[in-house]
TrEMBL record:
Domain Sigma-54 factor interaction: 39-216
Highest classification ranks of the organism: Bacteria, Pseudomonadati, Thermodesulfobacteriota, Desulfovibrionia, Desulfovibrionales
Organism, scientific name: Pseudodesulfovibrio nedwellii
UniProt keyword Nucleotide-binding, yes or no: yes
Pfam family of the protein (one): Sigma54_activat
Nucleotide-binding in keyword set: yes
InterPro entries: AAA+_ATPase, P-loop_NTPase, Sigma_54_int, Sigma_54_int_dom_ATP-bd_1, Sigma_54_int_dom_ATP-bd_2
The protein's name: Sigma-54 factor interaction domain-containing protein
Coiled-coil positions: none
Length: 216
């Protein structure tokens, strides 16, 4: 009987803790909107996204976030970083669509002094800058094929070289990639490397359209 009573009390305590955690996790504004790490939305589809962030945040697994423009993909990436064990380390952003093919690799991997015209000093790339933290690859679908091969190596071996160097650098980073394109379809048609897609899509996050995310 004592064990039954103790078990019942413990169940009640655990339920209370879970409810308190849920209240802490989801903040409701005076207007009735649900806020989670800066993300707004109370639709059940968004509730599932919040749970996924809580569960996937502490993992080091690569995340691929897909959704329409304006659905808060970068906010989700930030939330994943905040919930990770890397939260105190850098969160480094690179927009893959903002750089021409000739510059994207130097931005990602860095370069050595004299490796090309204008390289007057050695520069660390985004992967080195993010050591111990998270690299956020925005618009990953725009990355050129030549760079996709090198990015695949980073995902597989966590290794890369600066441009103009044969010294291999081993990085401790987590990658979160974002796109508004259907990368699975792009991979099947040959517009995106299929092996890279599967390396990125370890934890897939599909964001609902903006109007659904805001709906109650």
């Amino acid at each position: 009987m004592a064990r039954l009573i103790l078990s019942h009390v413990m169940d009640s305590i655990l339920r209370a803790i879970a409810q308190e955690e849920e209240l802490r996790r989801l903040r409701v504004s005076p207007g009735g909107e649900v806020h989670f790490c800066g993300i707004v939305g109370s639709h059940p589809s968004m509730q599932r996204i919040y749970s996924l962030i809580e569960n996937a945040g502490p993992s080091d697994a690569t995340v691929l976030i897909q959704g329409e423009s304006g659905t808060g993909k970068e906010l989700v990436a930030h939330a994943l970083h905040e919930k990770s064990l890397r939260a105190s380390k850098p969160f480094v952003v690179i927009n893959c669509a903002a750089y021409p093919e000739t510059l994207i690799e130097s931005e990602l991997f860095g370069y050595e002094k004299g490796s090309f015209t204008g390289a007057i000093k050695t520069k660390k790339g985004r992967f080195e800058q993010a050591e111990g933290g998270t690299v956020f690859l925005d618009e990953i679908g725009e990355i050129p094929h030549s760079t996709q091969v090198k990015l695949l190596r980073v995902l597989q071996d966590h290794q890369f070289e600066r441009l103009g160097s044969d010294h291999t650098i081993k990085g401790d980073i987590r990658i979160i990639a974002v796109t508004n394109r259907n990368l699975e379809k792009e991979a099947k048609t040959g517009n995106f490397r299929e092996d890279l897609f599967y390396r990125l899509n370890v934890i897939p996050v599909e964001l609902p359209p903006y109007e659904n995310a805001k709906a109650t």
